Amino acid sequence: MHARADASTDGASWPEDIFAILQRFEVRQVPYVPDAGHSQLIERVLGDPSMRGIALTTEEEGVALLLGAWAGGQRGVLLMQSSGVGNCINMLSLTQIFRFPFLTLVTMRGEWGEFNPWQVPMGTSTQGVLELAGVRVLRASHPDEVREVMEAAAGQAYGACTPTAVLLSQRLIGTKVFVK
Amino acid sequence: MSKANLLNRRLVVSSLLADRGEAIVVGGLGASTYDIAAAGDHARNLYLWGAMGGAVMIGLGLALAQPKLPVLVITGDGEMLMGMGSLATVGLQKPKNLSIIVLDNESYGETGGQMSHTAAAADLVDIARACGIADSRALTTLGEVEAFAARMQDVSAGPRFANIKIDAANLARVLSNRDGMFVLTRLRGALGFPPI
Questions:
Q1: Mean pLDDT computed over B99-120
Q2: Hey, what domains does chain A have and what are their CATH numbers?
Q3: Percent of chain B at pLDDT above 90?
Q4: First to last CA, chain B
Q5: Strand partners, B114
Q6: Number of domains comprising chain B
Q7: Which structural domain, as residue segments, surrounds residue B19?
Q8: Which A residues, 118 through 147, put their C-beta within 8 Å of a C-beta on chain B?
Q9: Is A42 helix (H, G, I), strand (E, B) or coil?
Q10: Could you tell me the CATH number of the domain that includes residue B94?
Q11: Chain B residue closest to A58 (CA)?
């Protein structure tokens, strides 16, 4: 079985690659709505005194938070699952109005061996929704390309204020197992 | 429609900002932004003309990034209702330098004065307190507003939330600057951050 349990990324190296890049780019505010695919990264963020992990009630809060962070001189990154992208649509207007360094890391559902049909509609439209909202989309599907994709995403988001999303594919994260 | 004994929103906001010092002010879309503009343009104002429901979260990001500066969010009941979850997020983070003011006219003034939930059911003071913002209160007199304005300068005792029932009369619009890049770059410049 390639399928993994809920906290599927425990012990994987690619979340460590992401964390190291966020540290190097001096990311300070990390708003998130939890996802199993982000669990290892969230633990690392919450354990780092230089970063502030900020639990949200809905993902759009994170878009607004990152604008405030930048207005106050800090960089941030928004962690969410593909279903959360739909919750952000109107708030993503901020990225065009204020052209601030917006970076989001999206763990994908509904695209690779998905068991739960409710994940499929939003998972299918995630990339299109982001692009229609003016966000550039990069994708990582294999562990050994995460570092390179993250480097590019952080570089263009923080360096050029190009709003950017990294889709961490369900193939990378591992399909959630509901029944054995 | 005007009701008796309700505060005038322009007087409330000009009182809040009269001695603002180094405070950063975020204005929610609609009349709140006009009130802030009417009190006088300022490099530390961030005006919103959209992104409904986002004002408090923008204030939170600012407050966490600049913990030594007072950050004040001034918004309306409709905008606050749309971002109600952000009160729970503030309650969890408890930024000591963040103050939130809701100018509550119990209606959606920009769109024709339709009734909002605060007219009949929702009590934002109770909601904010139940979300973990212990210093949550209703302000009913200009004296209380002035006292709040003084307390918001204390960046060691927040977060604070205050709801102010205001007269729902539509006042002449005083338009703020609506170019986001200009406003943001000016604010960052005032805080010492150069353009990229």
A1: 96
A2: 14-173 (3.40.50.970)
A3: 95
A4: 48
A5: B108
A6: 1
A7: 9-190
A8: none
A9: helix
A10: 3.40.50.970
A11: B85
